[in-house]
Amino acid sequence: MSLINDPDMQTPLPVGPGQGSTYPPVTEPEDTTLIDYADYFGFDERDRWYFPDGKQWVEFKKLTEGDRAKFLKATRSDVHLNQRSGEARIPFDQSKERKQLLLHSCTDWHLMRKNPRTQNWEPVPFQNNGSEGCAFAQWIDKANPALLAMLEKTIRMANPWLMNEMSVEQIDKEIADLQELRAAAAEREASEKNS
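Request: output the structure for the sequence above.
Response:
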């Protein structure tokens, strides 16, 4: 006796897609080449963040699950437990997290540098292998923090899971930074109007 066709059974068991299960109904088209499937086997989505001059840019990728794992491993902090007091401490280094995010997500750039000898603008080659000694990491260490903050924010917005990782303390810091930027911009605009 089959359980599926048992008339005494109150709720028949689903047997597959479209037959009482949570699967959507399946209809077989005559020509399977006409089906437009979504590809769920990885993705490579890239975007560009432009410097304030609007000409130079940094290309970044949306992080895959593998990239996410590498980033989290690079920024993981160990919990320090004081056995006497029972107090736990998790160190957090915001600058390390920002640098690792940039190293794991930035893939290319169009950046120019003035040659001090010729005074001509020359393209700077992009080199990022994710290590602390690569040219991109060295540029991060010398770059304007305000520019890096804007780039970081753009990358975080392109990777919504990164926003979920932010603590209330980090969000409050972002809000405070934005309030400082707003105050400085308002002051600058007021002085421009008066001159």
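The longest strand covers residues 46-50.
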